[in-house]
Amino acid sequence: MTGPQIVLVGPMGVGKSTVGALLAERLGTAFRDTDADIVAAQGREIAEIFVDEGEPRFRELERQAVRTALAEHAGILALGGGAILDDSSRALLAPHPVVYLSMDVEEAVKRTGLNQARPLLSVNPRKQWRELMNARRHLYAEVARAVVATDDRTPEEVAQAVLDALELKEA
User: Fold this and answer.
1) Do 38 and 49 form a contact (C-beta atoms < 8 A)?
2) CA atoms of 106 and 72, how far apart (whole Å)
3) Is the separation of the CB atoms in 90 and 143 below 8 Å?
């Protein structure tokens, strides 16, 4: 198989980037984040893309970023929270070792709060979080080989749980 060693999926604020960087360090490989790819390519933050061009345009950019990263990257890959909404992106994930990082609503609100950089949670975070997760939870689970809960765990503990779930050893 070519492509990433591990792909991390899950909601915004769950710690995919933090855990991904730790995993990359432990496995002696590179880390890549499709949200960061989009920001770099567009020269502006995701929230600005949402405001200026709308969610459909952002999802198109996200779909392209996922396709490119899965084809090019051999290390640890973190996908944006909504990347699994796209049927073609979910299909591309099938052969890869995908881990769904999960958290409950109270943990999510603590981590994301009223952060304006997260446009989908800008009005009523608890209500919007529940709605997003009701729409996405089954999609995260559908693509994942393993689910790792992040509640009350340090990023280091989550990284170890990911390695254990996939039965991988550190480099």
Assistant:
1) yes
2) 36
3) yes
Confidence of residue 116 (pLDDT cuts 50, 70, 90): very low
Tell me if residue 102 falls in helix, strand or coil: strand
Can you give the pTM of this predicted structure? 0.89
- Name beta bridge partners: 6: 76
Amino acid at site 101: L
Residue 113: predicted pLDDT: 54
CA distances from 159 to 30, 76, 86, 98, 122 (A): 15, 11, 26, 13, 29
17 within 8 A of 160, measured Cβ to Cβ: no
Rounded to whole angstroms, how far apart are CA atoms 128 and 131? 5
Split at pLDDT 50, 70, 90, the class of 170 is confident
* Domains assigned to the chain: 6-166 (3.40.50.300)
Is the pLDDT assigned to residue 111 strictly greater than 60? no
